[in-house]
Amino acid sequence: MFRKSKVTEGTSAGQVGFKKKSRVPGVMITQYIETLPEGKTHPDFTRKPIALTIQEGKFAFFKAIVTGDPTPTVTWVRNNGDVSDTTRYQSKYDPNSNEHTFEMPNVQPDQADTYKCIAVNEFGQAFVAVVLNVIEVGFKKNKAPEQVPDKITPVLKRTSKIRPKSEQTERKDGEIDPKFWELLMSADKKDYESICREFGITDFRWMLKKLNEMKKEREEEQATFVKNLSNLKPINVNVDGTASFELDMDLLEPSSSIFIYKDGEMVPYTKELGEKMKHSLNQVGRKYIFSMRDLLPDDAGLYQLDVEGVTMFSTEFKVPMVDFLVKIQEVKAMEREDAVFECVLSNPFSKINWFGKNLPLEQGEKFDIEVSEDKLIHRLVIKDCMVVDKGIYSACAGIKSCNAFLIVEPDKSVGKGKKSERKTTRAGGSGVNLQQVAQEQQAKLEQQWEERKEIIKQAQEEAAAAPPPEAPKPKTPEPAAVNAGEAISSANQDAEAVGEPCITGGLSDTYALRGSPHELMVTMNIECEGAWFKDGEPLSSGGGITVFKEGTTHKIRIASCQDDDSGVYRFAPGELSTQGKVTVGDVPEFDPDDLHKFSKPVVVRVGQNAAFKMPFPPQEALVVSWFKDGSEIKDGGGVKIVREPNHSRLLFKDCLRTDAGEIKIQLKNPFGAIEATSRLIVLDRPGPPDGPMETVETTSTVIEIKWNPPKDDGGSAVTHYIIERQHARQSLWTKLGDVSADKTTFRDRNVTHGKKYNYRIFAENPEGMSDPLETTDSIMAGVLILSGPPGAPIIVSATKTCIHLTWTPPEDTRGVPIVGYLLEKMKKDTNQWVAINAVNEPIEDIKSAVKDITEGSEYQFRVSAINESGAGDPSPPSEMVCAKNPNMRPSFKDPLDFMVVRAGNSVRIKINYEAEPPPTITWLKEDEPISPWINVINTEGMSQLVIPSSKRSDSAVYTIVAKNSVGEASFDVEVRVTDEPKSPGPVEIQQTVHGKLLISWAPSPDQELDDRLYYVVSQCDSNNRMWKNVADRLFANSYTAINIGAGIEYRFRIFAKNDMGLSDPSHSPPWGVNNNRVPVAANGLNSSEVSFERPPSILVPLKVHTPPKGYQLFMTCAVRGCPTPNISWYLDDICINSDNHYYMTNSFGVCSLYILRVGVKDGGEYKVVAVNSFGQAECSTKLVVKE
Predict the structure, then answer these.
(1) pLDDT, tens digit, 9 for 90 and up, residues 663-682
(2) 123, 227, 436, 808: which has the highest count of C-beta atoms within 10 A?
(3) d(CA 162, CA 179)
């Protein structure tokens, strides 16, 4: 046995408490009383406060949610101190959220302690402990130094140079941001270049030398607390909307303190799973995972993990300013069809992350990831969808994400075990014009950019208009790299300051088309003279070149550019100069024959490959691009682009219908671009006719339907449409016919009024037949005709598990055959009717057994007739009926009235009964109470009497008595406990008349104990030496053997037999020719006449039999009379002597009736009538056949 622990903590004097277990770990509960009143509960926590590590000066708080009835009182205490100071400790309660809050504004180091939250009501108390750790920051002058024990390691000062903004000092010119070094020490080598580019570091050799020194120093500091540090993974956004970074770390001391910082500020976090704090640090083995939920733009920054003040890992979290203008939508795709998710971003983004079922997705054979040229539209194409591809798919851009379901429906038109064909259609999309949304957003971004440029330009003009500052004293400048533009700008500013000529618009490198005019121009701030040079030689007008001046603008115009005009042109106004290179060339060209050949369409079938090839002359700086329907084609997936110096090839693998369209190649160089256009035609069977299917007309004799041509004709024209029909609630489709492609209507004249039909349309072209367009709802021929109401349901019977109902059909069927009935029920005190069967599963009979009921509840029922149009008007409701068994007098169900058991075996009497209310059961033995060692097992509807080990003395008549308030019933069961019988006594033979022998024997010792014991006589003679039974079922101790021949030796043996079997035999002495001869008196000497004539009499009557159905039956009785009586058998007073169903024998007065298989019709009263000239005798019995 288990003992409940008793405690007295927290209880009043003399009161005993019982410890209880809370569902929340760490909560201790004490219950004051052992059994709570109904509806009352002791206090408990549904949310406990969590441990907190926080920097001093911050706002610390604990939250808890408490339950209990009556409502508990909540108090907060600390182990080593008082919490009564309301300026430092504040307890609050929010009735809306049921939260108890304990707040500590401006937390100080002396408040670090273990705190307890205690909830108490009159039935018990619950409490939980929580630890607050406070980290000291900086040095306090007014704080007295404390003595630190030798065993306690003093807190180390943080080694990282990243400090909070409040503690940062202004960096000197040329000083490098400390964040640069922290990022490098935790980054991979492949990321060094991008980090240096971000911080403007160009001296890589110096950087690497400095980094190695800092790494060595940092590793020495880390070795003080960490044994091993590896697998540093930078912070990333996860598919569930959280951000996390992780690392593997072996601490020398598991109790070492771990701190998280963001831009130098300590971040509070929790270590408990399932808590709802923003930051958490979870440990799995040697792996530490820092997670951050509910991401915001303010979460961007440098995150660092420190152990006892030493930085172990640094990573920067960048939050791009991007959002979803159009989110991905749910997609429903057929099996082997392509599915498309697409979205539009608010700002250009080169690549977003796609996830499928929480796994990252990459470009490959299964997935196509597409990005528009403006980088605003992003698409994910899932090719050849299968059922296993269904699930949730997500798109993540920065900290923003959206997700949607992919539902893949199996292709039911394909037989079981067969694979459906690859479909050429695409499912999904956003449902809006993404191109338009992207163009509007691009225009908005360009407008914003122009506004920013205008603001910058205005600021520059204001700065230029301001008076120049006083010239600073000469100072030796630091070496710095400046470009030419900066040098010219600086020179111009100096020239403007003194009013000298300066260049406001200089020359730049340009490209000129051969044979076309070209112009070079230089703009000065004032009118001045200058000289032009080409490749260092002075240049003047002539030879197709014109040099002239227009105010402050100096120009050169080349009338028709040739190769000789290429070179470096320079303009020098005094000491100033500006130069630019002019390159003369031609636009790329195609060979006319190649162009004509390329322009011919390429025609392929679905699944085949398509190739395009375009030769062109080799050129420098030539850019080759391929386009399909205006969108540039990227190399990857099922597309292969080959670029060679003199040609380019485009290959489509396993073409789909979506690959069809206009194919264009573009050759582009600095002088211009040229394009060649072709077309890819992919032939396939057409798409399904465009729906929805419309019902043009429906009458009692005709249904006319209409559809639209398919949106995709498969590349070749539709030749005709095939129409099929299906009866509603049937699975067989029947072809009605076909119509030409120019007709999109069909009239079905073979319809039955009131019946519903489904239709489907196939489009066919030379490549095959399309998928069908089906009606969404069944179409009825004519108007809806519903049946009238049936008769109100009648309650036939009601029990606690079943209510039997019947009703009459409706009087008015309105000319439409009834296919069944809809049965409804309504519970008492409700107004809602609940259907017991569905309309498509009608009850075909006018009766029903309702089993979906609750015992003791009251119900009403109503019924509606169902025809092809649906369920008609409901009938009036039935009377209210209660689901309970009716009161009834106890009755027994097919009890067994006789039982034979071998001595030593158990006796088990099972009696099934019916009674309401449940009766009281009593067992009697010979009308006396049963012995205590006899077991009685009572269950609902059955009672058992069990005797574990039976003895002969247990043979008796057992009576079961069932009594309730309605009446009483009893039943007797005879139990016979017996064993195999003992052998009969000695056998004697005596001859009384010639040819007959009287065999007699002493009775078996069991004859007095077993009234069902009888004898069997076997005979053997010297002629055949075989034993055979000559008499059976003898209840006497003698037998007369007849047909005894002279000169033959006879032997007899006697068996005792009962329900358990045969005994060992008792043998007679042999009887021969001269043995025991009976002397015969001479005629006339001592003779006297003896008469044996007598009326019939019954020696052994018929017994009662209760065989199971299908078993064989043997019924016997013994009759005596002289002369031999005539025997007749009767069943229910009808003679059955001539009925072949029964086999009857009469062997020397032993009359037997044998039935091979007993049936129910064989039950009744059986009677044997024996008649001779002196009178008659009869006996009868009953035969009960059990089901």
Answers:
(1) 999 988 888 888 999 999 98
(2) 123
(3) 7
Residues 185 and 315 sit within 8 Å (Cβ to Cβ)? no
d(CA 50, CA 129): 9
**Nearby residues of 499 by Cβ (< 8 Å), 6 or more positions away:** none
Distance (Å, whole) CA 711 – CA 632:
25
pLDDT tens figures, 258-273: 888 888 888 888 776 5
Closest to 821 measured CA to CA, from 782, 781, 858, 861? 861
Give the residue from 667, 540, 552, 652 showing the smallest Cα distance to 603.
Answer: 652
Coil, helix or strand for 1035? Answer: coil
The answer to whether 633 touches 627, Cβ cutoff 8 Å, is: yes
Amino acid at site 169: T
Take residue 174 and report the two structure tokens written for it: 């040329």
Closest Cα partner for 705 from 749, 671, 672, 664?
A: 749
Banded model confidence at residue 513, pLDDT cuts 50, 70, 90:
confident
- For 770, the token pair is 């399309």
Does 623 have pLDDT greater than 80? yes
Question: Which alpha helices (DSSP H) does 642-717 contain, by range?
Answer: none
pLDDT digits (tens, 9 = 90+) for 973-996: 999 888 888 899 999 998 877 888
Average pLDDT over residues 1084-1107: 78
Q: What is the pLDDT of residue 1084?
A: 47
The number of beta carbons lying within 10 Å of the beta carbon of residue 97 is 10
Question: How far is it, in rounded angstroms, from Cα 391 to Cα 525?
Answer: 68
* Rounded distance between C-alpha atoms, residue 690 and residue 147, angstroms: 88
The string of pLDDT tens digits covering residues 319-357 is 777 888 899 999 999 888 899 999 999 888 888 889 988
Dihedrals phi, psi of 1070, to nearest 5 degrees: -65, 150
Rounded-to-5 percentages of helix, strand, coil across the chain? 10, 45, 45
DSSP string, 612-663: EEEE----TT-EEEEEETTEEPPSBTTEEEEE-SSEEEEEESS--GGG-EEE
**pLDDT beyond 70 at 530:** yes
